Amino acid sequence: MPFHETSEFPTVEGLEVEAIRVSPTNVLLPSRHTRTPQVEHLQAQFERFVASNAQLRATLRELDVLGATYYAYGGWVRDNLTSSTFGNEAITAKDIDLVVENISGTQLGQVINPPYRMTIFGGYACDNGAWPFDVWALSDTFLIRRLGLSANLDTLLRVTDFNINSAIFSPATARSSPSLIDGGCLTALKLRTIDFQCEVVPFPVLQAARLLIYGTKLKFQFSDRISRFIRKVAGVPENHLSIEQGIRSHAPHHARSALLLLRQMKAAQ
What span, in angstroms and rounded, lies between the C-alpha atoms of 100 and 66? Predict the structure, then answer.
C-alpha cells in the first residue's frame, strides 16, 4: 500500500489531528550554497521584505539582542527561487515564515510586539499590513514537537511536508554571510514535480487543498503518490467539500483552475 491512515498521531493541545503515513521518501542530503546568484537574490529580497515591515524589523532586532538565530523557511524561499532561478516572474512571495533557533517559544512571545495572533501550532502570526509574517521557535515546529524529534535544521528539512518547500535561507548577519540550505527544493523546482518530503502527513484535507493550489500556481506536475493521495482524500464527500472551500478561501485567484484540476483528477480514477 502506498499509504495508510494512522490513529497513533498525537493531538495538538486537545485538537484531534488526523494524519496519513505515506511510503518512506528518498530525501536528498542537505546541501549549503553560498555566494551564488540565488543566494544574492534571496538576500536582496529578504532585505526588501524586512525594510517594508516595521514589526518584523523590531522583532529581528530583539532576536539579535538575545543571540537567537532566525531563518526564512519554506514557501518564501521557494517562490523567490522559482521567480529568479527558473524564470517564472509571475510567482511572488507575499508573506514569509521565520523559524528561530536558540530560543524557546515563551521567550519568542516576549519579544514580539502586537498585533499578532497565536497559531494552533504554537507560533505567532503577524499579518498586520501588506507584508505578513509567521514566526516560531524551531523546537515548536509541529512535527518536531509532536514526534519528539531533535530540534535542528536537518530535522526541519526532513519533516517538511513537500519537496518544493524543503529549503532554508540564512540571511546575512554581522557574524556570517548569507546561505541557502537545500533539502531537495532545487531539484524539485528543476524537475517541476511536487512530491512528499516527510512520510507523516498531518491534516490531509488541508494538505490536499494546498497541493492543488501549488500545482495550479506553479504549473508543476504531481508525483504518482501525490496524485493517489489527493484522490483518496477527496474521495470522501465531506472532504471534497472542505477541499473546495479551502481553495476558494485561501487562493481565490487560483480557485477556478485548482477546482478544475481536482475534477480532472477525480475523473481520471
Answer: 11
Integer Cα distance of 187 and 184 in angstroms: 5
Query: Containing H/E element for 237?
Result: helix 237-250
Give me the pLDDT at residue 204, please. 94
Q: Which residues contact 142 (CB under 8 A, 6 or more apart)?
A: 12, 121, 122, 159, 202
Looking at the whole model, is its pTM more than 0.85?
yes
Domain count for the chain? 2
Whether 76 contacts 113, CB under 8 Å: no
Cell numbers given for 241: 467539500
What pLDDT shows up at residue 9?
A: 43
End residue of a domain, out of 191, 210, 225: 191
Tell me which residue range forms the domain holding 59.
25-191
Strands 179-182 and 167-170: what pairing? antiparallel
Amino acid identity of residue 217, one-letter, is: K
- C-alpha–C-alpha distance, residues 93 and 86, integer Å: 15
Angle between helical axes of 255-267 and 204-218 (0-180°, round to 10): 110
Quick one: average pLDDT of 142-169?
95
Q: Which of 164, 191, 218 is the last residue of a domain?
A: 191
3-state secondary structure of 161: coil
